[in-house]
Every structure is written in C-alpha cells, then in structure tokens.
C-alpha cells in the first residue's frame, strides 16, 4: 500500500540513520513526515508525557512523538538491539517502542522492526525488513532490496561533521599558535551532540569563540585499538565510539582539549565518562565533562565552554 504517511520522530537514532530511512521510505512510495527541530515546547511536551525516570534524549523523543502522532498513518520507531555481534544498544533504546506505547493513548500504528545482529547475524536486515513490508503491504523482497541499497547513504549528519573535521585538521599544524585556531575534540552520542536545542548549539558556540569543534566517527580498527587500552570492552555500541573518539583525541597533537557531552541521567555515560577520565587521558590533556539535563541553560553552557577555552589559551601561552 503506497502513499502512506510515515512519521519519523526527530530524536535518538534519527541523528544516526535519518537520511537512509528517508531515502528508503520515499523509494517505497511513502510520504515521509519528520517532526521539526527540537524546541522548548517539544521538550516540555515530552516531559509531560514521560512516566518514568527517563534520560533527556528519551524525554525529547516523546515530545516529537506527541507532535507527530495525530498527523501520520504510521510511526516508524525501530527497535535497535545490536548493530554488531559484540555489543548492545542501551536498554531504553531497545525498549523504545514499548516506552512510547506506555506513555501515549490514541497512537497510530507503530512500525517497530527489530535490528539484532547479535541474534540474526547476516540475516539481520532480512528480519528487520519483514515487519516493514507487512505494515505497508509491499512484497518483502522489494523492501529488503531497497533498505539494503539505502542503509549506508553516507549523508548522515555525523558523517558530514566527520569529513569537515578531517579537513580542518589536515589544514592546520600540530603547534597551537596565532596562525592556527584551537581544535576542541567533541565526544558524545550523535542524538545529544547534533540536536542543537539539547546541546545548546555547542558547535556554533565553539566556532564563535574562534576555535574549531572537531568530531570524528571512529573506524573499526580504531575501536579495537581503544578497547585494547581499557580493562574490559565497552558493552554499548555508542559507548564504544565515545570512548574511542576520546582515546584518539588524547593522543592527537592537533587536538588542544576534549569536551565530553553526556546526559546527566544516562547510565552508560556514567561508566564511559569514568573510563575516559581515569584510563585514557594519560597525557593529561585539558578535558571537560559537560553534563546536560532539561535544566541546563544556554548561558551556563556557554560560560563553561568559554572558561575551558580560556584555560587552554593560558596554559599554552
């Protein structure tokens, strides 16, 4: 059944897979409706519907669901359990479709396919696309082929920021001077970093202070190298990338300081933050953990970033 309106909430894994999802559904003939960028009213609505002790990104996601639910035929809320064999997504991500059902009444249909590489291995995409094909009444082989074709579009926001950061690093030298802008390594989960309302426009704030925000999306060999440095592999998919990015920044002479952006009530971030601070910063590079919740103010975050960059300037003068 074509021409269905598929709603995709602009939160959580949207910041990792949005472009692939949009291409996929549009090629299936669906109308894709995305909720707008997060603003204060969306977050307020999410907090109003939250029934448990959820982290800030989950509360925000609920606000996006509230905005979309009455204007679409189906909500796309996939259940990503594992994207590789060696780790899992965080529990709230795994249970996200159930969280949404528990927090709302009068929902449209929810398409919640399971992506579980640890269980299905090479057949993960095949299993993932079955419920989608059923929900939109199209042949499964066609849906599977289109999803596989679009799943790595290369246009995701994290990929664009990665390429920009690589260019900035290649253009500068290793010694901080009046000829080179300061490079600040940014680590954190994409749904927190690239939601401009939640991160308080962090990247622009750093640019306004005449420094370069640097974000990298680590490759698999880099992840394995970073995991070998710590006593035990990180159990969570995104947590491994956060730890690996920090490890790379600490050993890169072109990076002048590192900011770790985390959600104040995120369980996995409490572990990875401790690993980064105690195990990886062996060169004692300037490091700041920026914990964000719904009470964080733009001015408070800007003041901390200004103080951090000012401190690095004085240390390296």
Please explain how this structure is put together.
With 317 residues, this protein is α/β, with parallel strands linked by helices. 50% of the residues lie in helices and 14% in strands. The protein has 15 helices and 10 strands. It has helices at residues 14-27, 40-49, 56-68, 91-94, 96-103, 117-120, 124-135, 140-150, 157-171, 190-193, 202-208, 220-229, 237-251, 267-280, 298-316, and strands at residues 5-8, 31-34, 74-76, 79-82, 109-111, 114-116, 182-187, 211-214, 257-263, 287-292. Helix 14 links the parallel strand 9 (257-263) and strand 10 (287-292). The relative contact order is 0.12.
Q: Outline of this structure?
A:
The protein is an alpha/beta fold and 317 residues long.
